[in-house]
UniProtKB/TrEMBL annotation:
Domain RagB/SusD stretches: 346-471
This protein's record includes keyword Membrane: yes
Main location: membrane
Family recorded in the similarity comment: Belongs to the SusD family.
Gene3D superfamilies (UniProt xref): 1.25.40.390
Cell compartment(s), UniProt: Cell outer membrane
Species annotation: Pedobacter cryoconitis
Full protein name: Outer membrane starch-binding protein
Length: 472
């Protein structure tokens, strides 16, 4: 069979913005194994190549850097830093539909969906019987379905209602779909993830591969994030994930050493080999260093949270202070003589990005147990204390459902800082407005974010509104 690749919602989805003041080369490269144009897809090798194109397509701005900007800079974990107007708008809650990040994230996520749809549509047609004898055909379909679900999970959390594209567009009308309700998007996400649980491989030494464990972990997060969370389902899928053979890495700081990639705690991580390899991670070089002002600066509030908890291990693993007094830029939040940088991505070009790890799921299970029953905090405490023990902290003092709810929120913040989770945690627990409007600077003055409900989601990009008359 011949496979013709069509463009989805935004042509040029992989255009990367050049950040003002940066010296790095941000020119994107087409994935080595991405199938483009019209090609023959007749055997297992071609099928695997098409699936690899889905993975390669994920090496875009969203998954390399914007995941952290969206999850941490918008939240109380970090300031925008740098000098990029789009990032600063996100940080200050002044974003509008022309914001460059809002546009590129939309394009990147729908481009990833396009790639997954091409696999889901075409792999069943490949006439190679070896795909069935080995079970590889269903594995590929499971991986592609799971990745499509993950992209829609990001879209619905960022934008809310949005077009639900489940096939490769073949004409203009196919690319001009209206928004569908949030509930319909979540239903499709769950359907795709359930298919992935049934068909993806159980494990993979390469934690960049979408496995059953990834699908189970995402189902737990999805059921916790839906407008009406199903905590019994959250607990069920947390248990399924935990049973997948994962274990906490014994040394928290070691999680971020490149010698420990694909470790026992990792469920899903974006893989980087560095210069000379297939994929390089340019993100570390723009968040840490001297000479020009780096992006995503740790906030005073986060550093205070570490200090108030006496959490030296996670603080030092997450934040690095440097004297940058000689640099020719200014900052309104921190003194340059003791300026913080993110410390979880320590090897420029080679640091992997965790998408999911076990500590996230353990704390989500603790949250589920606490929500299922008013007495569930007792079971939750065991899990929270397990996470705290790894970083040599005593057990949580929380002793009822309400206090445990806040204890878990805090624990997730300190454990998962700069891994892209905080803002979405605040959103799903309906705490975003209260937390952000209470933010103070390092001197105790209000930051006056003035967050209101209409500022909690990204607007639909103006370019998409102009291009698609049905999305208004």
């Amino acid at each position: 069979m011949n496979l013709k690749i069509y463009s989805l919602i935004a042509a040029g989805a992989f255009v990367l913005s050049i950040q003002s003041g940066c010296k790095k080369d941000f020119l994107s490269k087409d994935p080595i194994d991405k199938i483009t144009g019209e090609v023959a897809l007749t055997d297992a090798a071609g099928a695997n190549k098409l699936m690899k194109g889905v993975y390669d397509g994920m090496y875009n701005d969203y998954h390399i850097w914007d995941f952290m900007t969206n999850g941490d800079v918008i939240s109380d974990n970090a300031y925008a830093g740098g000098d990029n107007p789009a990032n600063i708008q996100l940080d200050l809650f002044t974003t509008n539909s022309t914001n460059g990040n809002v546009d590129r994230d939309w394009s990147s996520l729908y481009s990833d969906i396009k790639n997954a749809n091409e696999v889901i549509e075409n792999i069943p047609k490949v006439p190679d019987p070896s795909l069935d004898a080995s079970g590889r055909r269903n594995q590929i379909l499971g991986e592609a379905s799971g990745i499509r679900a993950y992209m829609y999970f990001n879209i619905v959390r960022l934008y809310g209602a949005a077009p639900l594209i489940l096939k490769t567009p073949t004409n203009l009308a196919d690319t001009q779909q209206p928004k569908v309700a949030i509930d319909k998007i979540y239903a499709q996400i769950i359907k795709d993830l359930e298919f992935a649980v049934a068909n993806a491989s159980a494990t993979s030494a390469n934690k960049g591969i979408f496995t059953k464990g990834v699908a189970n972990a995402l189902l737990a997060k999805v059921y916790a994030t839906m407008p009406s969370p199903d905590w019994t389902k959250v607990n069920q899928y947390c248990d399924a994930t935990i049973a997948g053979g994962y274990s906490l890495f014994p040394n928290f700081n070691g999680l971020f050493d490149i010698a420990n990639k694909n470790n026992s705690e990792s469920i899903w991580e974006l893989q980087f080999q560095g210069n000379g390899g297939e994929h390089g991670n340019w993100m570390p070089g723009i968040i840490t260093g001297t000479g020009w002002k780096r992006f995503n600066t740790p906030s005073n509030d986060l550093v205070k949270a570490f200090d108030d908890e006496g959490d030296l291990i996670r603080k030092n693993s997450s934040v690095l202070f440097r004297n940058v007094s000689s640099d020719g830029w200014s900052d309104i939040y921190w003194p340059k003589s003791n300026y913080p940088f993110i410390n979880k991505y320590r090897a420029d070009d080679k640091s992997d990005n965790y998408i999911l790890r076990l500590a996230d799921i353990l704390l989500l299970k603790a949250e589920a147990l606490n929500e299922i029953s008013s007495a569930g905090w007792v079971q939750s405490k065991v899990i929270v204390d397990q996470i705290r023990a790894r970083v040599k902290l005593s057990g949580t003092p929380a002793a009822d459902q309400a206090s445990m709810r806040l204890a878990i929120e805090k624990e997730r913040r300190l454990e998962l800082a700069f891994e892209g989770h905080r803002w979405f945690d605040l959103l799903r627990t309906n705490r975003a407005i209260a937390v952000m409007n209470a933010q103070l600077d390092g001197k105790g003055a209000p930051l006056n974010y003035n967050v209101t409900p209409e500022k909690l989601l990204f607007p639909i990009p103006q370019k998409e509104i102009d291009r698609n008359p049905n999305i208004r």
